[in-house]
Amino acid sequence: MKTPDKPIFYLFLILASSSLFFTATTAKSTIEPCSSNDTCNSLLGYTLYTDLKVSEVASLFQVDPISILLANAIDISFPDVENHILPSHLFLKIPLTCSCVDGIRKSVSTRYKTRPSDTLASIAGSVYGGLVSAEQIQEANSVTDPSVLDVGTSLLVPLPCACFNGTDNSLPAVYLSYVVKGVDTLAGIARRYETTVTDLMNVNAMGAPDVSSGDILAVPLSACASNFPKYASDYGLIVPNGSYALAAGHCVQCSCALGSRSLYCEPASLAVSCSSMQCTNSNLMLGNITVQQSSAGCNVTTCDYNGFANGTILTMLTRSLQPRCPGPQQFAPLLAPPDTVPKDLMYAPAPSPDYDGPGSIAASPGSSVIPPGGGSLPGNPANGPAGSISTAATVYSFSYFFIMFLISISFVFSC
Ligand SMILES: *[C@@H]1O[C@H](CO)[C@@H](O)[C@H](O)[C@H]1NC(C)=O
Ligand SMILES: *[C@@H]1O[C@H](CO)[C@@H](O)[C@H](O)[C@H]1NC(C)=O
Ligand SMILES: *[C@@H]1O[C@H](CO)[C@@H](O)[C@H](O)[C@H]1NC(C)=O
Ligand SMILES: *[C@@H]1O[C@H](CO)[C@@H](O)[C@H](O)[C@H]1NC(C)=O
Ligand SMILES: *[C@@H]1O[C@H](CO)[C@@H](O)[C@H](O)[C@H]1NC(C)=O
Ligand SMILES: *[C@@H]1O[C@H](CO)[C@@H](O)[C@H](O)[C@H]1NC(C)=O
């Protein structure tokens, strides 16, 4: 290109670079250094790139399908639930073990077998929804020529995760790796996950409350922690509010009671053979709570789950005197397996609001080059939890079109 000599060209450059800030800067992600080999429970925020069976999502991440359903509070008692087809663009939380590899927190338990017409970019941006980049897959597998991918190659897919010692502001927390979408604002993300902008900025070491499409944030979800002995195989179990987790070889399910930070576990509703779940020296079963009003207060006895060790379900009888007898415990409601993308706050807004049915899937999250808001219709009521998001989208689309206009002008001038 010849040397520009027109003021409008400089204006164009300034505006173009500010538009690049939104579109073409390298996506940021949060890196947590680590030193020991310990692991923790973490979650991936994953948006389905196409209709997939529960079992297909599970094999994409090599995670137990029942655990995925329970992490999303989906009722597992539905007949043939593992073959239920989940709709494209559904947002799911995928439970994953977070490890420490080469001094950095990441999950390395996922492998992908390449299929015809896959490219590293399509695997990263589409299949794994932008949770990984093509470069990261290339590096993890020492792929020398990414243009030649043999069908059936098993690729390690490193995925982002964080532990931060299982706490956030000294309270138990599980970290969700969340891929920022075009319509997202930090305030919107904070609201959706019941945290604050300040907290998200602190956790992700952000200098300003700005996010760009494709960034990966570690979002702390308030959780209930266990206090199992170290020798339990599920030592350190921690369950985010609103999720359920399976333990003890599918025999026990645990969750937070609503409005409480204590982990509550009970026998799972799955037909598997389990060791005894009765508390010793008691007729109480795991999860049973008895209350007895006395002159001193309320005598509460619970039979608690205390971890899984050597094939045995450990139980612990706990007695306490409380000022008042507790009411019945309440839990996050279990949802029917979804057939459509719910507009519920539990789920992220659909990445492409103008999506209108199967077959019209054009861009998938992460692989999209549409600037933030460019793919969204301002004011689409189906799209967002907040009006401010639509406003922001309008501004971005406006600046996008303005820049396109300037580009055309500058071409006219330079020709
Ligand atoms: C960490 O893992 C390595 C290999 O996986 C093992 O040799 C080492 O003993 C582990 N260290 C600890 C502290 O668990
Ligand atoms: C990690 O969390 C535990 C409580 O869960 C706390 O006792 C410990 O001090 C924390 N460690 C660090 C390094 O923050
Ligand atoms: C837990 O989630 C429920 C909704 O499922 C919400 O009403 C409640 O405020 C949450 N509690 C905490 C401590 O985040
Ligand atoms: C104790 O727990 C078992 C298993 O969940 C349940 O079937 C039973 O009804 C409970 N009993 C009481 C008294 O709550
Ligand atoms: C586990 O249980 C088996 C059989 O009950 C026993 O032989 C073994 O010593 C136990 N191992 C541990 C570590 O407790
Ligand atoms: C609870 O009640 C039992 C019998 O009713 C009594 O033996 C026990 O001391 C009481 N526990 C507390 C903590 O008050």
UniProtKB/TrEMBL annotation:
Pfam family, one: LysM2_CERK1_LYK3_4_5
Gene3D superfamilies: LysM domain (3.10.350.10)
Organism of derivation: Brassica campestris
Keywords: Membrane, Signal, Transmembrane, Transmembrane helix
Name assigned to this protein: LysM domain-containing protein
Domain LysM intervals: 110-157, 176-219
Coiled coil: none
Molecular function per GO: peptidoglycan binding
